[in-house]
Amino acid sequence: MSAEPAKFVWYDLMTSDAKAAESFYQSVVGWNTQDAGMGDRSYIILSAGTTMVGGLMPIPEDARAMGAKPCWNGYIGVSDVDAYAARVTAAGGTIRRPPDDIPGVGRFAVAADPHGAAFILFKGNSDQQPAPVAAGTPGHVGWHELHAGDGEQAFTFYADLFGWTKDEALDMGPLGIYQTFSTGGAAVGGMMTKTADMPATCWLYYVNVESVDAAIARISHGGGKVLMGPHQVPGGSWIVQGLDPQGAMFALVSAHR
């Protein structure tokens, strides 16, 4: 296994209406979109400027048959998908889709931690890593937040699996401890035991935008729903959490209200 901590390398949305979702996120985030040209499957590439940051696709029929709902997924880059899938199950997690190949792209497996929060293991055909961008760059994911079944147990699971380390721990009073974490360098996310109003454990990805207030107006205009915010967090950034028109939860962050 690599000595370097594993990092998030890609994000994509599974949705019930790909064209409507594409239009929504183009407006709200400002992403450019284009068809990936994968032939046997529909997959839209989402780009910030000329930099590809994620994708968008219809919920696969087999997943739809199993009751899958629209959701965002984070891909964690690993050195060997099959070996890491075995480590997930050994640590008490589950593999929801066994390792498989995406022709011309790489190998992946859909996994979940011991309390059910999903993530994707991924190894690309190329060892090229995403180019680093300045913190807060619009259109890029700026924060990764786990609403966990048990925050401390979740951190242990991900730290042992991926080499992540603790950063600052924030005491949020009745809401418990918010543990920020690093994948090498500055903190990239936080973990907390989920609150009662969060229906299930999940990863929530915060996309950088220029202005939270302006984005909120675009969310409402596009048929989405604001769940929380605008809210200022430690460090001064402003956040908003919402649902897109198809029901997928997403979040935005900005240095500016």
UniProtKB/TrEMBL annotation:
Protein species of origin: Collimonas fungivorans (strain Ter331)
Annotated Gene3D superfamilies: 2,3-Dihydroxybiphenyl 1,2-Dioxygenase, domain 1 (3.10.180.10)
Name assigned to this protein: VOC domain-containing protein
SUPFAM superfamilies in the record: Glyoxalase/Bleomycin resistance protein/Dihydroxybiphenyl dioxygenase (SSF54593)
PANTHER family, per the entry: GB|AAF24581.1, GLYOXALASE-RELATED
Organism superkingdom: Bacteria
Domain VOC: start-end pairs: 7-124, 137-255
